[in-house]
Amino acid sequence: MNSIEQASKIIAFRDFLRARFPEAHEAAPDREQPHVLTGAFELGPLDLRKGTITEVVAPFAGCGAGLLLGELLQHDRTCRELIALIDGSDAFDPWSICPEALERLLWARCKEPAMAIKAADLLLRDGNMPLVILDLQSHAPKALQRFPSSVWHRLRMLAEKSACCLCAFTPVRMVSCARTRVRMTGGFQLSHFYQDRAVLLSELSFQIDRQQTKVLTPEPVRVTA
Q1: Which residues have C-beta within 8 Å of that of residue 104, sequence separation ≥ 6?
Q2: How far is CA 18 from CA 22, 47, 67, 128, in A?
Q3: Where do the domains of the chain lie?
Q4: pLDDT-derived band of residue 215, with 50, 70 and 90 as boundaries?
Q5: To the nearest 10°, the Cα dihedral for 138, 123, 145, 178?
Q6: Using an 8 Å Cβ cutoff, are 207 and 58 in contact?
Q7: Residues 156-196: tens digit of each pLDDT
Q8: Lowest-confidence range among 6-10, 60-64, 153-157?
Q9: What pLDDT, on the 0 to 100 scale, is given for residue 54?
Q10: Backbone phi and psi for residue 100, each to the nearest 5 degrees, phi listed first
């Protein structure tokens, strides 16, 4: 694909975003407003902040990463915040979240890690999604570790420039420039599928592996009760 074809596709994609989410392209009000996401329970360890990358390491199946991702997508139904989900393995089930959340969701379906990284690059450059979730947890670690650290540093700089938050779900630790890194430590069995969602959320277990004290921007994007 030559540079002209790439440019035309980028322009077409931006036109699609403007048509699908017109409120995100409206002029910003004079008074700056914080972007706050709320869920059913406290997700303080994630500390999602604008202009940074948060990495969620999901080391094994059944650790609850899918449940956590679904909760991030279902933030406060009374607000109009937009979320982009980059589905790195085309595995997201839209029926797993409420219809109200789907109305505010941009779902980018990818089959290869390289395609998912390109989608994250484009969305962060566009800068109209306060929260961009990059789901790579289903890919083999070897395939993801082929990406040099410069790829993540570029995404961090784009997030900082556009004041967006990038939350990356990975199977192993790989985002060296992540401001916050949490590792899922819990485990669920088949019997847990019969329990209430709120109960399962309360049983999610995290371990903070990295959390920088220096904040690039003052306004946090937090998930609160």
Answers
A1: 80, 81, 82, 83
A2: 5, 29, 30, 9
A3: 34-224
A4: very low
A5: -100
A6: no
A7: 999 999 999 999 999 999 999 999 899 888 777 666 666 67
A8: 6-10
A9: 93
A10: -60, -35
What per-residue confidence (pLDDT) applies to 112?
A: 92
User: What's the pLDDT tens digit per position in 78-106?
Assistant: 556 789 999 999 989 898 888 888 888 99
Q: What per-residue string of b and e applies to 34-57 under the rule 16 or more CB within 10 Å gives b?
A: ebbbbbeeebeebbbbbbbbbbbb
Could you write out the DSSP letters of every residue in 41-102? S--GGG--BTTSEEEEE--STTSSHHHHHHHHHS--TTS---EEEEETTS---GGGS-HHHH
Topology given in CATH for the domain delimited by 34-224: Rossmann fold (3.40.50)
Between CA 153 and CA 160, with CA 157 as vertex, the angle to 5 degrees is: 135
How far apart CA 94 and CA 144 sit, in angstroms, is 25
Q: Hey, what are 89's tokens?
A: 């393995």
d(CA 101, CA 74): 5
pTM value is 0.74
